[in-house]
Amino acid sequence: MSQQPPNRSTASPPPRPDASMSLLNNVMDHSLDEGYAEAAARRDAEEGGLPRTLRAKLGLAAGLVLAALVVTVGAAQARISAPVVAKEREELIDRINSESTTADSLERTVEKLRTEVGERQRAALRQHGGDQGELVALLSGATPVHGPGVKLVVDDAKNSESDGGGPRESSSFSDTGRVRDRDMQRVVNGLWESGAEAIAINGQRLTSLSAIRAAGDAILVDNRPLVPPYTVLAVGDGKKLSTAFQDSADGQYLHSLQESFGVRTSISEQEEVRLPAAPSLIVRTAEPKATDAGKGNGQSTADSGKGTS
């Protein structure tokens, strides 16, 4: 019986299961490079070998001490400068109060001088106004007047905006119910046209030189601001004046403001209304002199009547 020749080859050990992950094992076993390890060791030796957590705590403590020092110094400086700031504030308040008192005193002086100038102007107008002096004084607003008339009140619409232009800001009625300067101009012109002899708005007497303008949202009459409601007093035949105004184009304009924008208006006849004199009146007189008839050119200048405004 033949036998198999013996197998003389030596058997190799079985391979490791993680043999294919040798690179990963090497990285895990030597996670820190030798150079980094040496540098960390030298740093620990230079710092006395203190644990890292202890160094962090010491650094935090030093930071807190520094912050407390800064806060303490700031508080000390604020405490030192507080009396100085308070003193400067009190001095500024005293200066403001003093200057305000001075301005009020100057304003009263100006008003007194304005009244005196107005009285002298009215006296000069009565003295040099000729035969028509009283009538001129009345028409120019130089004297206070009283008599029958009408009372016309014009006010903004309810809940009207105070910061937007209001009606008639543009050429068409496209805004809210605010009364504008041009509205009051039309009201006043309509009253003059309807036969009013004298007019005042919120106690401000109108003259032939009066101006009704706007400054922002305010209405100015002779540079004096007025606030709504606007009360217009007019001297004249109350019944005729009221009827004529309401039938006029300006009265219809005011009615359209009421209907379209809610502007509040009311007009009533008054047995007697009192209007003050104009606060500031400019008196100008002129007396042209006749010239000799035609010197060399055959022309002559006729005498002109005395004019007063």
Summarize the structure.
With 309 residues, this protein is of the alpha+beta class. It has helices at 22-29, 34-46, 52-128, 133-140, 181-193, 238-247, 249-261; strands spanning 145-155, 198-201, 204-205, 212-215, 218-221, 224-226, 230-235, 264-275, 285-286, 307-308. It starts with 21 loop residues before the first helix and ends with a strand.
Average per-residue pLDDT, rounded, comes to: 75
Order of helices and strands: HHHHEHEEEEEEHHEEE
Based on CA inertia axes, which overall geometry fits? elongated
Question: Which strands sit side by side, in order, in the main sheet?
Answer: 3-2-7-1-8
- Are there runs of 5+ residues with pLDDT below 50, and where? 162-174, 293-309
Q: How many helices?
A: 7
**Class from helix and strand fractions:** alpha+beta
Largest sheet: 5 strands, antiparallel
Number of E strands: 10
Terminal Cα separation, in Å?
165 Å
Q: Gyration radius, to the nearest Å?
A: 49 Å
**Strand portion, in percent?**
15-25%
Please give a structural write-up.
The chain has 309 residues and is an alpha+beta fold. 46% of the residues lie in helices and 16% in strands. It contains 7 helices and 10 strands. The strands form 3 sheets. It has a 5-stranded antiparallel sheet. It has a 3-stranded antiparallel sheet with strand order 4-5-6, with helices on one face. A two-stranded antiparallel ribbon has the order 9-10. Helix 3 runs antiparallel to helix 4. The longest helix is centred in the N-terminal third of the chain and has 77 residues.
Note the main attributes of this structure.
three-stranded antiparallel β-sheet, five-stranded antiparallel β-sheet, alpha+beta, 7 helices, elongated
